Amino acid sequence: MQSRFTSLLKRLVTVDDTVLDQQFTLIDDESDTSYEADGNKHTPEVIDFDTDENKTETRRPVSMREFIRKGTDEYNEAVRKSHVGQDDALPVSIDEMKQRLERFFHLPQNKDVVVREFSVGVHTNQPWRGLAVFIDGMADKTVINRDILERLMLFTEFIHDEPRRNMEYIAENLLTSNQTVTLEKWSQVVQTVLSGSTAVLLDGCNGALSVETKGWEHRSVGTPQTESVVRGAHDSFTESFRANTGLVRARFRSEHLVTEMFSVGNLATTDVAVMYVHGMTNPKLVREVRRRIEAVDVDYISSAGMLEQFIEDQPSRLIPQVLSTERPDRVAASLAEGYVAIFVGNNPYVLIAPVVLYSMVHTSEDANLRFQAGTFIRCLRWVALFVALLLPSLYVAVTNYHPEMLPTDLMLAIAGSREQVPFPVIVEILLMEFAIELIREAGIRIPSVIGPTIGIVGALIIGQAAVQAGIVSPLLVIVVATTALAGFAIPNYELSMAIRITRFIFLLAGAVLGFYGIAILGCVYVVRLSMQKSFGVPILAPIAPSKGSSKDVLLRGPVYTMNRRPVFLNPLRSWRQQPITRPWSSDTGRRKGSGENGSDKS
Amino acid sequence: MKDQQETAKITANQLTAMLIIVVATNAFLTYPQYVSQSAYEAAWMEPIISGVMTLVLFFLVEWVLRKFYPQLDIVEVSKEIFGRVGAALIAIVFAAYFLCTTAVVVREFTENVISTVLPSTPILLVGAVFMAAVGYIAYAGLEGICRTAYIFLPVLLIGLVGVCVATMNWWHMSFLLPIWGTGVNHVLMGSCRYSAVFSNVLLLTIIYKHAHNPRQMRQIGTVSITVSTLLLTFLIVTYHMVFPAVESEQVSFALYRLARLIYLGPFFQRMESVFIFLWVTSATVKMAVTLWCSAYLLGKAFGWPTYRPAIPILSLLSWSIAMWADNWVQVVNVDGRYLMSWGWLIVFALPIAVLFIGTLARGLRGPHDGPGDRRRRRRRVRHA
């Protein structure tokens, strides 16, 4: 007791910083070998980027060309070292194989990589040793047990003398899995295991078998979360890569639909698929998409949103340059028009490239409704877009600079309602916009259990209470609420985000220079947009630059008149349907000018 | 470094839109005042006569360019005829004209803004914002300008026609009498004197090589000159039907004056602020064209790999020139006395003279013997 008291007293009167040393730190972590299991002598090759040979610091002036060349060499050397052993041929001895597996997969610390040792055949005097390697959780154990282990261990009696021939024999006659590939390189084995398949290695064979056993858990196909429609398909992409490609292929049943596969990522690879219609999609577009994806040089890509930022034309622009969708029907329709779809592994969003601004205001529902209704809701969305962008700034401009525009009664009403408000209009509107943005963000992040709370809090903030407190005027509440609603009416989330941010810039312009400022900024914004491109296609096409197109841009034409594919994509086949699609109808069968080129240009 | 503008190819409707806006924007600058002073009740005839004259000259120049100088602009043609130094001098004259036009319009425009909608805002701020926007648009190049013009053309058309139609209840047909105004000779003189607003001919010699399909140039010229002539005429006719001739010559901002009269019931009154979008968008495009032309001509004349670095400098220069005058009256005097009265020399006479001297020289020395021809042939091959 006394010693404890003394200790406390001592700590009060002395400066003792040893407590800092007890804090956790990541510095000098290389000396810590506690994570290694006892007896494990195989450590992975460590690449030290700080050694003299890898230092990029220059001591004497060198030319830029020399500097770049040196940097490239160093980088290539580092990459080469990180792949040491990956391109080697497979060893023949099963012990060596096991040793190498342990080194590459950090065994035995790594508990979810399973190396199953077994003997092939039941009645053999000389047991033929084999290994099945897979990752627990990624592979389907039923398939492994039934189609690999059971077949090889229990039902195999024949053993051929020639090892290589045995491998082929096993693949062709014994293993009943639907996909079996013979592997030659060690890197293929690693990739196979990491992708959820099972690698089968046998003693004496300088090859391995990759057996398709992918079977990790994933969400089943559900309804779209951000692109809901009343009339139309209700399925959406899920986190399963193959399920996503399958959903599109199930709709778009064409032998010309091509799915090219890529792996992106140096540290951990992510599957990326590029889907297009061969013979119809512009080959230059496909090549460009392929080129950009292959050129991505990162450690890890986690989602479609990340890949989008790596492959888009001008990342500094707010307006998205790739369309992101979770609807298989939209992807299928886009493929039919000549676009290219990009799937990213285990991601429920698919990218469509290129994109034009007008596509981002369209929805899948438009095509399912009759053209009058489709045009109406599309017009509504265009109005919503401009309201979301400009209404607050116009309100500030009118009240500050152009009050004469308002009818006298309305102006007096606004002045009367603002009498109690101590702030200028711009402060008032920024407060409310900030509150709305908070509600939007909190509404997304809040757990569903306490979801109703956001409604109550939101109603309190932007409702009568704020007005009664004299913080804002009633008309402003209407303006801000209408703006928020208009923002929600924009179907594309990325575009909606861009509008949200741009709105504040217009608000500032309206507050400083009224209509004049808004008009000037509008000009600059239009020029900026007109020069923006998505995979070589101007984002304002087919209006600026004007190119022929079906009546499916600002408005929506009848489906039986939308005969041409978008010209700005330069597809190899420009007509998607016959000029006369309702020959039986006296009203539409012989439309005026339907037989001539460009009859359906808008 | 490759010339950034070399690859720009503009479609016909975008070029048409750009040319319409460049000419029709004069409707809300001082052009209505000048023609009113010149012809009184017959002021509306002057844009028609100027338009017809421009159309004829446009066809003539287009024919010469198409026949003798395909894929060449006025600076390249000048190089063939007068050599590098001569071409540089001619380009400097054109560039200076465009620069002065930009400066005068900037000042007129900012004075209009100050006097109508932003009376308490410093003119330097208004001008600087405007010039920065114009510089940015010009920096985007001819493609960006023409695309923007195409997008904003409906705003101009609806706005101009709207402001005319909405003042219908103020129209007095008798205000247009006597039909010849100050007399036929004055009308003809005024038409020639103020024809510089139709800068289509000079612009044609600059943008000719950037047309996506040069064969459509005649159509582009016809449509753009006709539409802009009709718009100007319609506005001036309306203006003179609403205000008596003596009063109309006093006002420098006809469109605003008309817009203030719009009364469509108690809710739609004092709509002139709405037309700010019309003035700003059109004036911005017009200024961007003149600024771009100025930079482009200088770049071509002196063989710069790109004209873009010149844009901020020329923006600043034209803004400085614009703010040189002490007051609005000085600006109007300079504009009316020099740019408007003698602008036809540069807009029409000089490019036509250059082309015809070149054609004559080719005729004298034979079709294929000059160094310019060799240069042109090489360029043709490269273009193909």
TrEMBL record, chain A:
TM helices/strands, residue ranges: 338-361, 382-401, 446-465, 471-493, 505-527
Origin species: Alicyclobacillus fastidiosus
Annotated keywords: Membrane, Transmembrane, Transmembrane helix
Name used for this protein in its record: Spore germination protein
Family, per entry: Belongs to the GerABKA family.
Basic and acidic residues composition-biased segments: 588-602
PANTHER family cross-referenced by the UniProt entry: LEUCINE ZIPPER PROTEIN 4 (PTHR22550:SF5), SPORE GERMINATION PROTEIN (PTHR22550)
Highest rank taxon of the organism: Bacteria
Region of interest called Disordered, as start-end residue ranges on this chain: 580-602
TrEMBL record, chain B:
Membrane topology note: Multi-pass membrane protein
Keyword Membrane: yes
Membrane-crossing segments per the record: 12-31, 43-65, 85-106, 118-139, 151-171, 183-208, 220-242, 274-298, 310-329, 341-361
Keyword flag Lyase: no
Cell location: Membrane
Chief location category: membrane
Alphabetical UniProt keywords: Germination, Membrane, Transmembrane, Transmembrane helix, Transport
InterPro entries given in the database record: Spore_GerAB
Family statement: Belongs to the amino acid-polyamine-organocation (APC) superfamily. Spore germination protein (SGP) (TC 2.A.3.9) family.
Protein name per UniProt: Endospore germination permease
Organism: Alicyclobacillus fastidiosus
